[in-house]
Amino acid sequence: MTKGRKMTRTVETLHPKGRPAPSADTLYWNAVKARDRSFDGKLLYSVATTGVYCRPSCPARLAKRENVAFHASCADAEAAGFRPCKRCKPNEPSLHETYAAKVAEACRLIEGAEVAPKLDDLARASGLSPFHFHRMFKAIAGVTPKAYAVAHRQKRVRENLKRTKSVTEAIHEAGFNSSGRFYANSTDVLGMTPSEFRKGGANAAMKFAVGECSLGSILVAATDKGITAIFFGDDPEALVHDLEDRFPHATLIGGDRAFEDTMAKVVGLVEAPENGLSLPLDVRGTAFQHRVWQALREIPVGETVTYSQIAERIGMPKAVRAVAAACAANKIAVAIPCHRVVRSDGSLSGYRWGIARKSMLIEREGKS
Known about the structure:
Shape: flat
Oligomer: single chain
Number of strands: 10
Number of helices: 16
CATH architecture of the largest domain: Orthogonal Bundle
Distance between the termini: 48 Å
Largest sheet: 4 strands, mixed
CATH class of the largest domain: Mainly Alpha
Radius of gyration: 24 Å
Structural class: alpha/beta
């Protein structure tokens, strides 16, 4: 039997430590060894000794490297004389893909509904029992259907407050049946009262300070809810202007002695990421951004993942560009570690605070 044609295109980009990035062949083999599901649908591998081809995530016993070849499609693998594996069924939609599609459809139903759909209705639409659907949704989306619906309604409130004349109207249009219930939790949703939010953060007190760390100048800002911004740059004054632009009507207050402790803890996180950060975060964004940022916070120190892997983890494998956009929108550097996300070939992509800083952070965490 003839082995399938191998993909041997060499990638010329460099790793953060200056070493050449691995070839595509090496990258694919590493994916097979790790049974990396994020590569499913992007390539297949065949085994000469068994005559079958599989998905990278196939749980079958790992074959010897010399017996493995890679293919771009089922047609390519079968043209080379291989048959589909009966265990991972690479010529059929995977169970994970099927479930991810059901979750994506449920998300669309939630987002398109005036009132949050009941669990039983969502489960019925997906063809699953409520118990199975609830467990599947949480495993793929990272949150429960109810939490996703609440996050989406909160997003709609933020959008409505910017265009409606009445706060009550904005709340009810977003699907909250009781304005009293929303007001009771409004600061958790908006970081401030609805009226203050409509005025661009007017009267919202935000302490900030600018200092220096090994990555250059650093600005830290926080409300009474937690850290709301961590910026890096070369010009301290430019960092302050950036904060003013993002919160044009907020009351910015220079940090006092008590805030020095907050600043010290953030700088400590930059210099020794393995120690973590014990401070709360005041994270503001869309429901989708929150899902991406939560996935970023779950990446262990010293490890990197690809944009496609993050998209896979949040149950939206085709939303790679949207994931990249959410990473770019992150305002809380290091604490929400968007620097740990790299391209599929291992090279570094754009970083809001500069590729050099991203490289330094990754190299530092690799040594921790």
